[in-house]
Every structure is written in C-alpha cells, then in structure tokens.
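Please check this one:

***
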Amino acid sequence: MSDLTSHPWFFCGIGGSGMLPLALILRGAGARVAGSDRSRDQGRTPEKFAWLESLGFDLHPQDGSGIDSAEQVLVASAAVEDSVPEIVRAKELGCPRLSRAELLARLFNAAPIGIAVGGTSGKSTVTGMVGWIMDRAGRDPTIMNGAVMKNFVSSENPFASARIGSGNLFVSEVDESDGSIALYRPTVAVLLNVSLDHKSIEELRLLITRLRNIPNVIDVERMIEQAKG
C-alpha cells in the first residue's frame, strides 16, 4: 500500500458511486485525497460533500484548480470528456491518470485474500452480504461496493459504500460491462448471473471464463441450472 500513499490523489467525480468508496479506502489507508464533482458545483446532495469534507477530503470546484502538482495521480472514469478542466490541467502538468477500474484492481490485487463478486446484476447486494458475513466472523474486511450498504450505515458513516478494515481480506464487486473484470486476481470468485446487458452474451462468456477457471469460484448461475436439472 505504500506506493499508493506516497503521492497525492485527485478524484474527478469524487461523489460518484464508483469513485466515492475508492476515495474512502485510499483515505483510510493514509493517502492524501482531493477531488471535485459537478454535482457539488450544482448544489446536489450537499450532505454527502459536507460529510466528505468533515473526513478531511479537500474538495474543489470542477474548474481545474484542484490539480496543482505533477505528483498528483488523477482518477477519472474513461467516459470523462477530455474537455473537463481537470483532464486538461492534468495533461498540462503531466499527471499520471488511472481509471476507476485500474485503481480498484491495484487495491484488490494487493490484498493477501481477495473475494470478487461478478455477474450482470446483483453484485452490490451480494458484495454487501459477503462483507457483512466476513465482518461478523471477525475477519475485519475491507469492502468496496457500488452502493450504500445499510448494515454498515451509522451517523458517522451515512454513505457506507466502503468499509476500511485492518485484516488481510478485501471484498469487492467487479464489473464486466467495460471488460475490466479481467484485471482482477481473486482468491475466491463469486459468479452471479450472466445475461444480456452492456455486452453480447458471447463477449460476456469470454470475460467470465477467467473467473470460472479460478479454483475457488462459486458459480451461482451454474448451481441454479444444476438444481433445475
């Protein structure tokens, strides 16, 4: 984790469902994290951004002013337009850039034990379930989710899409829609349904094949089909 905490980070769209938990996990590990979000500039969900500021996140308008050093690593979705001020400024300074999936893969693959939850739908729910089970079992997991996990919500943590643990276990949902599922090296993979969504079934099955070849894969879809038979 030391290589991830030795330099500052800047999240473009820090309040997003995929960005927020990653920012929380990095901050929990001791990294310096700043960010911007157009929703904040537009006055939407002010309670979320006030909470982030209370945790020590340095938030900026989405005008490029938060990018002030070539040492910063910019985290931005691949879908973010090149015209966004943070992207323009980062290019001018030569800042390295990572996508959400690339950063998550780094964090996940660095953990001694990784549990990846994949599939076309149901990932957030099952990730929350697995994370809660591991927490109740005393494993003190780190959890990365794309949705708020109600079991972990508290007055101090109202937007609990992440849990920062001190154990050696990392539980995360992994996404097949952009092909990034191939970046992860899980110890245990939980495979849910594979159905038509962002990609064709043929493309999805090619992506999922790697997960199915993992010795400790829990293939829920296959288990259901076998039960039907």
In short: The first strand starts at residue 9 and ends at 12. The domain at 102-228 is CATH 3.40.1190.10 (UDP-N-acetylmuramoyl-L-alanine:D-glutamate ligase).
